[in-house]
Amino acid sequence: MRAFAVLVLLSGSATAATVTVDGTVFRDTNGDGIQQADEPGLAGITVSWEAKVFVTTGADGRYALAAPGDGIVWARATDGYVPTPTWRAVVVANGNQSADLGLRPSKPLTGPLSFLHASDSHIGIPEIAGTDVPTAFAIAGRLTPAPTFMVITGDVTQSETADQFVALRDALTEIDVPFVPVIGNHDLYQNGNEYRKALGPTQYSFETGGVHFMVLDHSRMNNLEVATAQGVLDFVRADIARSPPGMPTVVFTHAPQPDNLTVVLAQLGVTWMFTGHWHSNRLIAHGPLTEVTSTSPPPATGSRPGWTASSCWRTTSSSTSRCCARSGRATAAASRPGRSASWSRRTPGRARPRSSSPSTARRRSR
Q: Which of 161, 226, 279, 307 is the most buried (most CB within 10 A)?
């Protein structure tokens, strides 16, 4: 039996251009994006158009939603599946259309969930050697134990050109660590069009290791009024409501947010927020919400700050959760197999950036 359930339409109204998008979310065992006879549909998976329209797959993995314009549909990966976004572009001029979405199985989690966090890689900037990003990704791929995923919180590219995304793709092919992309201001130099062609949605979510992660588009935030008007807070509310009660929520976004918006995110249930933009490393406690700001991945010389090692886990016996972060620089020694990175640690609190004053960081981030 095919069951479809439309949950909610957020921040926008349907127009005459609305089209129906339907398809199957399935277990993409071989990773080719095409459902095979032995790849079953997945029930209970959230599918979204632009983080505004939400539906849930039926028992056979089928879904259908009304897309009110051009955009992207994506499936929310759950525990056991790779967190890199699975998505398809929707063009209303093509009329009603199908979009199957294959979730790739992830490697079994053998311990606490861990991930690597960096920001502002600026692929394509002349001042940074072209080998820096591949070397940084190699460090991530050789760490023991391997991280569950790695995330770059924005400014993935310097000027959002197609060739810069090709360089990113080539660097990613050398490692076996899932990549979680986040859009930054430099990734908007072409209005986000090249970013979306290469990496998909600018807002999405996933679950892994008993933790709910949300990627938020900072260009739709940066103050409480904009985040409200752009539907970002509606997305946070709706997406958290789809998580099991008590599951911790972590946000990835490019720029640190003002206090009044951070307070609202904490009130909605966000406990950790990972950012970049300032080209510095810092760890700040905003009451119940802790913010981790990191900088560029470490280059071949090991001379700049880089990866932040983070662990999030859930203690099922007491139904409580904890998350910790270690902010600092992965040394060049970490690029050798069998060696773990060394870290400089910071204590939560109202910390000043490690490597830049705010004014300096602001000039460097433009």
A: 307
